[in-house]
UniProtKB/TrEMBL annotation:
Subcellular compartments: Cell membrane
Positions of transmembrane segments: 26-44, 79-97, 104-124, 130-154, 166-187, 207-230
Membrane topology: Multi-pass membrane protein
A GO CC term assigned to this protein in UniProt: plasma membrane
Keywords: Cell membrane, Membrane, Transmembrane, Transmembrane helix
Protein's organism: Streptomyces violaceusniger
The UniProt record lists the keyword Membrane: yes
A Pfam family the protein falls into: AA_permease_2
Record's protein name: Amino acid permease/ SLC12A domain-containing protein
């Protein structure tokens, strides 16, 4: 779950807002697909509980070249997607600590966001597990809390139209799904280290499914909460939608006193 919940929870609401509430339907469909993938990775780990995840399974089924393509594609996707994490970190630092916008600060924040996890990874599996546990708790509980609180300030007038893009509903659904697919990158993470955990035949599948479901709850509640607390036009142009939601909730709570 720690690998699934990343920069997406902070940026995706603004990224899919131009498609309207149609994107919530796309999110639901993708969630079902992600759970199905988690079940697949769990079953594959039962058959071959080796470290490597998709690479191991592709090589076993289709040969060395297929294994290479799987590993190379996964590696490329991983470092390319890190750019989104850097962008999210820079955007939220500017909101939380205003007045320090410069290329030097942006570069320093982006490098820290990339290198701190890398250093933990270089320290070994035990360190990675500890960092994952702590970071997951620190992300999951506050995000879930803020998402639930945001529902109490939900205003239907903030929602855009169902198909904000104006084109075909199927086209909007597909476009939103293509962006939202990023949110479930990491569903394969438990299978990647199957050979390093106890009882992988049971634990990999369990961790994959429970982690995906937990992440889905946070993502869906968080997205609905942001959609309902931030005016649509403001959300489309926001670089820190979750922060904007918190500000609106605080303002609403103050006005209610």
């Amino acid at each position: 779950m720690g690998n699934i919940i990343g920069g997406g929870i902070f940026l995706l609401p603004a990224s899919v807002a131009p498609f309207g509430t149609l994107s919530l339907l796309a999110f639901g469909v993708l969630t079902l697909g992600a759970i199905a993938l988690a079940l697949v990775f769990g079953r594959l780990a039962e058959r071959d509980p080796s470290t490597g995840g998709p690479y191991v399974h592709a090589r076993a089924a289709f040969g060395d070249f297929a294994g290479f393509l799987s590993a190379w594609s996964y590696w490329t996707m991983t470092w390319v997607s890190n750019a989104a994490l850097a962008v999210a970190a820079v955007g939220y630092v500017h909101v939380l600590v205003p007045g320090h916008e410069s290329k030097g600060v942006n570069l320093a924040v982006a490098l820290l966001a990339l290198w701190l996890p890398a250093l933990a990874n270089l320290a070994g599996t035990r360190w990675v597990g500890a960092v994952q546990l702590v970071s997951t708790v620190l992300k999951f509980i506050p995000l879930l809390f803020v998402a639930v609180v945001g529902l109490f300030f939900f205003d239907p007038h903030n929602l855009g139209s169902f198909n904000e893009g104006g084109g075909s509903a199927l086209g909007g659904l597909s476009a939103a799904a293509a962006i939202l697919l990023y949110s479930y990158v990491g569903v394969e993470s438990a299978s990647m280290s199957a050979g390093e955990v106890r009882d992988p035949e049971r634990n990999v599948g369990r961790a994959s499914v429970l982690g995906t479901v937990g992440a889905a709850v946070v993502y869906l509640l968080g997205t609905v909460s942001v959609f309902g607390t931030v005016a649509h036009d403001d959300l489309v142009s926001s670089t820190a939608p979750s922060r904007t939601r918190s500000t609106r909730c605080s303002a609403g709570a103050g006005a209610a006193r």
